[in-house]
Amino acid sequence: MAEKKSNRGAWNSKLGFILAASGSAIGLGNIVFFSSNAYQYGGGAFYLPYFLALFVLGIPVMILEFGLGSTTGRAFPEALYRTVGKKGEFIGWWALSSALFITMYYVAILGWALGMMFGAFGSLFEAGATAPFPPFSQPTTGPSAITYFFNLITTWWPLLCVLIIWGLNMLILWKGTATIERAVRIFVPLMWLFMIGLIVRGLTLEGGLDGVLYLFTPDIEGIKEPTVWRGAFSQMFFSLSLGLGTMTAYASYLPKDADQVNNSLLVSFMNCGFEYIAGVAIFSLLFVFALNPVGGTLSLSFFAIPQGISAFPWGVRLFGFLFFFLLVIAGLTSSISLIEGPASALIDKLRISRAKALSIIAIPGVIGSVCYTLPQVIDPGLNGNGTLGLSLLDVMDHWAFNYSLLTTGFVTCILVGWVFGAAKMRAIVNEHAKIKLGVWFDILIKFIAPILLGGVIIWNLISEFTGDNIYGGGVDLGAYSWIPYVIPFVWLIGATAGAAYMTFGRSYASPTPAPEAPSTHA
Ligand code: TRP
What we know:
Blueprint: H1 5-8, H2 14-25, H3 28-40, H4 44-72, H5 76-84, H6 86-121, H7 145-152, H8 157-173, H9 177-204, H10 208-216, H11 226-239, H12 246-251, H13 260-288, H14 299-310, H15 316-350, H16 354-373, H17 388-430, H18 439-466, H19 483-504
Helix pairs in contact: 2-9, 2-13, 2-15, 3-11, 3-13, 3-14, 3-15, 4-5, 4-11, 4-13, 4-17, 4-18, 5-6, 6-8, 6-15, 6-16, 6-17, 6-19, 8-15, 8-16, 9-13, 9-15, 10-13, 11-17, 11-18, 13-14, 15-16, 17-18, 17-19
The protein binds tryptophan.
């Protein structure tokens, strides 16, 4: 077990690990996706399911993912293989293949954020920008972030930005934990600093508190909707970086005696703390400037926030730049973890070098990200209802974001809870934990989490296929209207085939003993 561990890399300090894991958790999910989900599901209606999800799903599943990593010293598929056998390994690879699909569009969004960041010192905050298709082809009288964005994505700049972001990811991952740790020591404190700057600015503007009220006033009616629950659960999984094996990969570089209860509490509270701060900052701007976000996921952070910033009495370019710089560094510390999950698993299984593992991921990854950003993909015929690249992203996000994380979480709970044994996992974790887990942990992992997750998945799948259209099927995509029907299959078949090949096409080199519960376990 520990024999190969030193070659795999190890965190220099607990702080390094906490910075890396919280850097993974805090990302576009906390700023872009959280604000758009909270807005879409009606602010106050979102909170109750979200809060419940933190304690009932988020923290217990994180303890599970951390525990799997540090007790086995291996990435997600092998950690599951050692604990529950081949079926576990299969779901491990399935999750990592899904991670690759998510990484593709995650990096594309980061590329656009980088483009907007440069734009803050370019023409983003100047009037008169136009895009080649209506209704954005009219010169604007004031600065308009929407027009700037649609203009930007019809150029080749985002392609360059996406390549820069992939390059930065490779650079940070090049020497594994050593280079990751160096990056997160700078980026993670910096992003807290910027976020605090933004919230102070937002709240000190007159009327800033109204947004906070909208966000926090409970709305009991809204929670009757199944989609609110799916949205809240998926958002919690995504935000905490669960369900794609990321946290297991990071925890596999920890010593066996790490206190995983403590680590999980620290990381999840830091993540949710950041998310609340981001939510307050964003919603305060929204209300101060009476902004009405239209359209999809990106609109709040890409259009509404810069629009708010452009109305600041001073420091427009500086705050605009800081906001997008914040997105870029918060996103980078997450995208590296999305890539490190599969990279460490490939290194473990194929015994290949890190450079080779990173190339195996980066080649399809870059191609995928580029697909979202090529100007050719932008179809002028869509009349501003969206662009093909954005619609593609939205549909892929719908399936991968909502279903892969929750499905992996569901299967992991069933396998570890019932096959390996929740009590055994609890005993292993408790051995080094200051705050001991009680029997409630077993009940959560064996019953409550799978019932909630399974219920939400089934409930949503039913509404997915009983509606008039498959997701995205109602959007006017011209000649490309078949795309929303194909994407779920591309994702499902792609992830399943990848998982089957990695699980059954190859086997691990050395015999792999399962971790034992400590003998003192009661
Ligand atoms: N948690 C990150 C965010 O909020 C994204 C992320 C990184 C992620 N690694 C993950 C999401 C693993 C799900 C699973 O932006």
